[in-house]
Amino acid sequence: MIKRIFPVLLSVLLLLAGCTAGTKETAGVTSAATAAAQTSGSSSAAPAAETAIPAEATAAPTVPVALVLPLTENTSGKVQIQTVSGSLTYKYNSYIITSAEGESVVVDPTSMPSIDIVNINPAAIISTHAHDDHVSKKFTEAYDCQKILYTKADISTKDFHIYTVASSHADDTILDDATNYIVVFEVDGLRIAHMGDIGQTVLTDDQLAAIGEIDIAFMQFENGYSDMSLKNEKGFNLIEQLNPKIIIPTHYTDAAIPVITEKNGDITEFDNVLTISKDALPEKALTVYHITNTHKYR
Predict the structure, then answer these.
(1) Dihedral over alpha carbons 277, 283, 284, 288 (to 10 degrees)
(2) Rounded to an integer, what distance in angstroms lies between the CA atom of residue 270 and that of residue 247?
(3) Cβ 145 vs Cβ 152: under 8 Å
(4) d(C-alpha 40, C-alpha 34), whole Å
(5) What burial class does residue 240 get, using C-beta atoms within 10 Å of its C-beta: 0-12 exposed, 13-18 middle, 19+ buried?
(6) Does domain 79-291 have CATH number 1.20.200.10?
(7) H/E element holding 137?
(8) pLDDT, tens only, 134-186
(9) What end-to-end distance do the CA atoms of the chain give, in Å?
(10) Torsion of CA 270, 274, 280, 281, to 10 degrees
C-alpha cells in the first residue's frame, strides 16, 4: 500500500514544486518588465509625460501689443494736429502741430515715444512751464532743434513763427520769470495758442494785445494746481476773453463735458488727428473739438 502511495505522493510534490518555480519566474519577469516600463516611461509614468507634452505644445502664445504711433508725414494739404502723450493720466496736454508742407513742432511733451520707436523730427520743441506733465527732458534732449523752455522767446522755423507771452499758473500775479507761458503758433494762415496751465482769473489788456486774434486754443478747464474748477469757471471766463474759433480741451474730467456742451454746444471728436485750414474753420466761435488719444508706445 505504502509502495503504491509513495510514487503518487512524489508526483504531487514534484508538480507542486514546478508550479511554485513557475510562479516565481513569472513574478520575476513581471517585475523586470514593470521596472523596464517605468524606466522607459511607458508604464504609469506615461500619462503624465503625455499630458505634459500637449500642454506645452498648446500653450497660448504671447501676443505682442500692437503699437499705435503718431503720423510722421502730413499728406492732408492742411495743418495737422495730433495728440502724442503716452500718459494715461495726462492724455491731452501734448501735441504735434505739422504744417501743410510737413514741418512739425511739439508743444508740452510728456511721456513721449522714444526716437527709436518713432522719429518725430521736430523743428522746434516748446514747453509752457516746468511741471512734469508739460515737459520731457529725455525727449527734448534727444532732438537737435530750436527750443523754448518756459521762457519769453520769439523764434521762426521754415513754416512756423512761434512766440510766448508771460502768464501766471495760479493767480493774477505775473512775474518777470513767469510761472506759465502762453505759446502762439502762426502757421499756414492759422494762429494757434496753447494756454499751458494758466490760472489767472482774467487776461490782461497787455496779454490780449500780445496774443492777438486766435483761431485755435488749447485750454484747461479743471486743475487744482491752478485753482481752476467747474465751480469758479476760470477756464470758461478766460477762453471767452480769447474767443477762438476752436477750443481743444486739455486738463478736464468727465464732469466737465456736460458743462462744456451746455456752454459751447456739442463736442466734435477726431480720432487722434485733426486736419484743419483757415477756410475750414467753423463759423461759430468757441466750437469745441476733442482729439482722442489711443497711442501706444509699449
Answers:
(1) -30
(2) 13
(3) no
(4) 10
(5) middle
(6) no
(7) helix 137-142
(8) 999 999 999 999 999 999 999 999 999 999 999 999 999 999 999 999 999 99
(9) 103
(10) 80
Measuring CA to CA, how many Å separate 38 from each of 27, 32, 48?
16, 10, 12
Q: How do the domains of the chain map onto residue ranges?
A: 2-58, 79-291
Q: Which DSSP helix (H) or strand (E) runs through 180?
A: strand 180-187
Beta pairing partners, 80: 98, 275
Tracing cell 507761458 back to the chain, one arrives at 181
Nearest to 197 by CA among 228, 153, 242, 240: 228
| Residue of 197, 207, 201, 210 whose CA lies nearest to 172 | 201
Nearest Cα neighbor of 251 from 241, 238, 262 is 238
Task: Write b or e for each residue in 66-91: b if 16 or more Cβ atoms lie within 10 A of its Cβ, otherwise e.
Answer: eeeebbeebeeebbbbbbbbbbeebb
For residues 180 and 56, give the distance between their C-alpha atoms in angstroms, rounded to a whole number.
57
Which residue do the cell numbers 462744456 mark?
Answer: 260
For 27-77, the pLDDT digits (tens) are 333 333 333 333 333 333 433 443 343 445 556 677 677 999 999 999 999
